[in-house]
Task: structure prediction
Amino acid sequence: MMPVLALALLSTFAAESQPAATACQPAEPAQKRITVCLLPKKKGVPYFTSCAKGAQEAAAELGGVELIYDGPTDGSPEKAAAMIERWALRGVDVIAVSPNDPDVLAPAMKKAREKGVHVVTWDADGKSDAREFMVNQATSREIGRALVDAMVADLGGAQVAGEVAIITATLTAANQNEWIVHIKERLADFPGLSLVAVRPSNEDQKLAFQATRDLIGAHPRLRGIFAISSVAFPGAAEAIRQGGLGGKVLVTGLSTPNDMRAYVKDGTVRSVVLWNTVDLGYLTVHVADAVARGRLKPGATAMSAGRLGERVVAGDQVLLGKILIFNAENIDKFDF
Result:
C-alpha cells in the first residue's frame, strides 16, 4: 500500500501539470467605444457631404467609433467654435475640425485639448498648437502648381498671354491663402499671365457668380479665373456660361466632379482639380481613431488606414496623397 505522503505528492504533481480550465481564462477586453465629431467648414456643401460619406464608411468599418457629423449651415466660424465647446463639455474623444477662420476657432480647440479631448484638423489647417495632427489632402505647393498648370494647358500652353484672377472662399481661409501663395509662385514661370485680382465669395455660390461678372466687366483682357473653393467654382462657371463666354474666359478650380460635370460636358470648363473627397473623410476618421487609441503619436512616419493602406505621416501631417484632374475624357468615371 502506497504511503499517504506519496499519494499526496502525486496528486499535487498531477494537478499542477494539468492546463488551467478554459472557463478560467480572462476574456479579451472589449474595444473601448469612442466618439468622433467631424466638423466641416459649412454643412450642406456637396464637397463636405461627400467627405462625410467616407467618414461614415470608416466608422462602420472600425466598429468602435460613434461618428457625429455636424457644422454650421452658414459657415460661421463663431458657430463652429461654439460647437467645439459643447462637444468638449460632453467629453467626446476626438474633434476633427476643418477651420474656416483659424484665429476664431483656435481658443475653443485649445480649451478642448485642455479638457483631454484629442483635436485634429482636416481639409484645412488651424493653429498648429491647437491640434495634434492635420489630415492633408495634398501639400499647398502641389495644389497651387496643379491649378496653374491646368489653367496654362487649358489656355493653350506656356506662351499664353493675358490676365487671370482668383475667387477664393474667404480672405481668412488659411489653406486657401497658402494655395494662393503657391499659385503666385507658379505664375511667375509664365510671364505672359498677370494676376489682377483676388476676390472672396464667402462660400456663397451667388456671390461667386457676381464676383465673376464683376471681374469680367472690370478686366477686358481677362483670360482665366481660378475658383479655389468647391462653392465658388460652379458659381463662376455659371456666370461664364450665362455670359456666353465659354472658351473665351476659362475657369478652373477645386470642386467635385458631380458639381462640375455639366460645365465640363458643355465646354465651359476644361479641367477640374481636386482629390478623392470620400477618401479624405475616410482617412480623417482613421486618423482620429488612431490618435484616440494611442496608435498615432508624434514622430510617426506612416500609419495604416484601412482600404487606403499605408499613408505617409510627414511631421504632424497625414497625407492623403494624390491630386486628381477631371476632364471630358474621365469625369464620368467618378461619382462624388
Observations:
- The first strand starts at residue 34 and ends at 39.
